[in-house]
Amino acid sequence: MKKLFLLAGLAIGLMVNAQVLEVVSVQPVATPAGDVKVAGIAPDGSYILLTSSTNQGLQKYDLQSGETTTLSDAEGAGYNAAISADGAKVTYREVSLGQNNMRMQAMKSMNLGTKKVQTEVAPTRSARKIALGGRAVAVRPTCSIENQQLMVTIGSTTTQISPLGTNKSYIWPSVSPNGQKVLFYVAGMGAFVSNLDGSNVISLGRNVRAPKWYNDNIVIGMNDKDNGEVVISSEIVAVNLNGQSQVLTSGIDAMYPYACSGKIVCSGLNGETYLINVR
Predict the structure, then answer these.
(1) What is the pTM of this model?
(2) Which tens digit of pLDDT belongs to each residue from 72-119?
(3) Per-residue exposure over 178-191, b if at least 16 CB sit within 10 Å of its own CB, e if not
(4) Cα separation of 264 and 132, whole Å?
(5) % helix / strand / coil in the chain, to the nearest 5?
(6) 7, 46, 123, 260: which could form a disulfide with 104 (CB 3.0–4.6 Å)?
(7) How would you label 4-39 residue by residue, b for 16+ Cβ within 10 Å and e otherwise?
(8) Considering only the top CATH level, what class is 4-278?
């Protein structure tokens, strides 16, 4: 059994309130009206990706000019869309139905300069192939979910780690920027961080849903509440690996954050987009 560290000796969900990030400003972004949610932000903060509430289609929105460019109309294109480190390429999914109406996923990429589209992974049912982006060997550690279990790939070896046991359902996995830790959420339990082998598990609390790395020591997420049918309120939170937490938004309802250095972008409950400048 992997050892579970409850930060600062507190139970899950009880955090030490402190300033994790300094909030400089929170401002609305005039993204196109309609069914829109944020799907990513460029590493240099120059543009964001937008999709629909069902992850249909993908658009690039330039934060300075306000120009919107359609990258894909495909189903699933907004789910886990990825931006290259130099911001020049966007990778996204295309969902289709194969034989016997089996749900398949392909991975494509677009060069934003040339607009050339390339198929990275042909239609497949393998979450691992999608996570690897068509590479036979991972260039850095990657993680994926298969049959609700947490998988980590290092080089050409994929291992199921599932740090809290195989009777749990794992979602929202990601590897830290330095490639040394994995972040994940366990349904009904909360967000956690562990080493790549599943050891040294740290609880970040139940109220850090849809967690994303801000940097190697800080995780952002949302604390959303519903009435059993729809979300009625949500706030963006930040928590560090020392157990300190902070609410970053006040007076607005914001969900599903994405971050680059100095910027966090997130969606409102009614299709709004917000930009949080931090330091």
Answers:
(1) 0.89
(2) 999 999 999 999 999 999 999 999 988 888 899 999 999 999 999 999
(3) eeebbbbbbeebbb
(4) 26
(5) 5, 50, 45
(6) 123
(7) eeebeeeebeebeeeebbebeebeebebeeeebbbb
(8) mainly beta
